[in-house]
UniProtKB/TrEMBL annotation:
InterPro entries per the UniProt record, alphabetical: 6-blade_b-propeller_TolB-like (IPR011042), Beta-prop_PDH (IPR054539), Cyt_c-like_dom (IPR009056), Cyt_c-like_dom_sf (IPR036909), Quinoprot_gluc/sorb_DH_b-prop (IPR011041)
Keyword tags: Heme, Iron, Metal-binding, Signal
Protein name: PQQ-dependent sugar dehydrogenase
Sequence ranges assigned to domain Cytochrome c in this UniProt record: 490-582
UniProt xrefs under PANTHER family: LARGE, MULTIFUNCTIONAL SECRETED PROTEIN, LARGE, MULTIFUNCTIONAL SECRETED PROTEIN-RELATED
Signal peptide: 1-31
Superkingdom of the source species: Bacteria
Length: 588
């Protein structure tokens, strides 16, 4: 697997000759063949020559990563409503991992920093600068001294920045620090598109959008200075809805990724079909230029037209009008809609093929709102770059994280953070099950960039295939659901199809997960817990008809009827299905 077949054939052909140089070439080829293959099946699909092993597992909801010169890997973990308010690990939210035996696995695992018992909730951003590890912690950026080794479990931080906004849709604060000590930190938007009523159909955008004073941009501070306080004055760029991935190239240019807006179809069905809703807008990679405006909330990037166009909340017509978007800074590259680029790292190592040098790895966390189409992302892509610009199309570098289901409620793993180790290995974190992979390369450094083989998954929201007789493949499990009073098993079965987008164009499963298991943005419906009614048919009907403008426990608002037009039959059916999920015997 190390050399291509044609390379082996050439080596053996040379070996048949009498020249000493030919014999040397053969010996070199055989040495390559003896390099160790993967010692375990880490479950990922990678290009040939690459190997993924599990460096650590079960560390918590692992977000972003940072590596110290001694090879120690630092992980920031998060908690809260995004993860169903599950119980965090004991100990601090920051994790230091180190392989002291050269086995490719962490044998040292130290948790440090404030814990859940201290009232902390963890965070996303983490970065190494000089002899310090900087980390996001609630509304703060703090730092820990690592000059003499890993921090102790009870290490106390110094506060670099405090008072960052943490309310609304995007409370996380990824950041980066350049060689001069400039600390660039993201303040994600509090809303989807600065609407008067967030995520509600036909709600116009606030004009002017006052959020831009304190949200939806990147701020700049001094990493060497303690005790700084967040304010509008330090804003460096604006109009970046939710910047997550940050890194610098060798020339010092700062690249960021942005999560694009949601719900074009649900909020403006007269302008966007369901298919357009899950294909628009594109995710973006941007080069940061001080003082620039990147378009949010007035604009979104339309990959069909390859330009920023006016959003419907600000007078857009579905893609033709440009308006103020002419003044916005365009992205340098773009990617499929709703894939959620959670991190970006420029490859600066010397282990991977030379073609990867200076390019960007991007961790795509995976979509929740492409239903009724199959969800997308849940992979790590590679974007070639040269002189600050794309040098070719992106490829999917690593796949298979989600396992059988690319769906936020059922995915086995969701890539979230990246880091390049001193030896050139690539670390990838997962915030679903807390796994850390270490990707290495053992092939020819002259090999070209190559996409990973397609990983086999099940489409979470696409229609299920049925035989001519019409027997549903999971009909056995369907019979386990109770039937609401006055309803029927046939109506519950229809409701399941409506819920999953197979009938009527609804996107219920996008927020609430396949089979109502819940996602980070929508409540689980199979627990028997009713947040907005007594769980009766009439109560469920009222909630779905009126929508949920201000959720109690999750960030995802629900428009009336889920943002689509449902017939009376389909509405009654999905109500019956939701009732049945919440009243199943195991929930009583």
């Amino acid at each position: 697997m190390i050399l291509a077949n044609s390379s082996r054939q050439r080596a053996f052909a040379f070996a048949a000759g009498v020249a000493v140089s030919s014999l040397a070439a053969f010996a070199s080829a055989r040495a390559e063949d003896t390099k160790p293959a993967c010692s375990e099946d880490a479950g990922l699909s990678l290009p040939k020559g690459f190997c993924a092993t599990v460096f650590a597992d079960g560390v918590g909801h692992a977000r972003q990563l940072a590596v110290a010169p001694d090879g120690a890997l630092y992980v920031n973990t998060w908690s809260g409503v995004y993860y169903g308010n599950d119980k965090p690990h004991d100990g601090g939210f920051l994790v230091a991992l180190k392989d002291t035996k050269g086995a490719g696995k962490a044998d040292v695992n130290v948790r440090f920093g404030p814990s859940f018992a201290d009232g902390a909730h963890g965070g996303t951003g983490v970065w190494r600068y000089k002899n310090w590890i900087y980390a996001e912690a609630n509304d703060k950026i703090v730092r820990y001294d690592i000059g003499s080794g890993l921090p102790a479990a009870d290490a106390r931080p110094e506060i670099v920045l405090s008072g960052m906004p943490i309310a609304g849709d995007h409370p996380m604060h990824p950041f980066a620090i350049d060689a001069h000590g400039n600390l660039f930190v993201s303040m994600g938007s509090a809303t989807n598109a600065c609407e008067v009523k967030n995520r509600m159909p036909h709600s116009p955008g606030n004009d002017p959008c006052m959020e831009l004073e304190t949200r939806a941009g990147v701020w700049r501070y001094d990493a060497n200075k303690l005790g700084q306080t967040f304010s509008p004055n330090e804003r460096y760029i604006s109009g970046s809805r939710n910047s997550e991935g940050f890194d610098f190239d060798s020339a010092g240019r700062l690249f960021v990724t942005q999560h694009g807006r949601d719900q074009l179809h649900e909020d403006w069905p007269e302008l966007f079909t369901a298919e357009q809703g899950f294909e628009l807008p594109a995710e973006q990679m941007m080069m940061v230029k001080g003082g620039a405006w990147y378009g949010w909330p007035n604009c979104y990037f339309d990959p069909r037209r390859k330009k920023l166009v006016l959003a419907p909340e600000y007078g857009g017509d579905g893609g033709e009008k440009i308006g103020v978007c002419e003044k916005a800074e365009a992205p340098i590259a773009y990617y499929p809609a709703h894939w959620a680029p959670n991190d970006l790292k420029i490859y600066s190592g010397a282990q991977f093929p030379k073609a990867y040098s200076g390019g960007a790895f991007i961790a795509f966390h995976g979509s929740w709102n492409r239903a009724p189409s199959p969800q997308g992302g849940y992979n790590v892509a590679f974007q070639p770059l040269a002189d600050g610009k794309p040098a070719g199309d992106y490829i999917v570098f690593a796949d298979g994280f989600a396992g059988r289901h690319k769906d936020p409620g059922r995915a086995a793993h969701r890539p979230s953070g990246l880091a390049v180790a001193p030896d050139g290995a690539l670390f990838i974190s997962d915030d679903q099950a807390g796994r850390i992979w270490r990707v290495t390369y053992v092939g020819d450094r002259g090999a070209p960039i190559e996409a990973a083989p397609i990983a086999r998954t099940l489409a979470a929201s696409s229609p299920l295939a049925t035989p001519p007789e019409g027997v549903h493949p999971d009909a056995g499990s369907q019979t386990a659901l109770p039937v609401p009073p006055g309803s029927s098993a046939e109506k519950v079965a229809l409701g399941k199809k409506v819920f999953h987008g197979e009938v009527g164009g609804a996107t219920c499963a996008g927020c609430h997960g396949a089979d109502g298991v819940g996602t980070p943005v929508g409540a689980a419906l199979n627990t028997g817990l009713w947040l907005w009614s007594d769980g009766s048919l009439s109560g469920v009907m009222k909630t779905i008809e009126e929508g949920v403008a201000e959720p109690k426990q999750h960030p995802g608002a629900m428009p009336p009827l889920g943002g689509v037009e449902l017939s009376k039959e389909n509405l009654e059916a999905v109500v019956a299905y939701v009732w049945a999920l919440g009243h199943a015997p195991n929930n009583r």
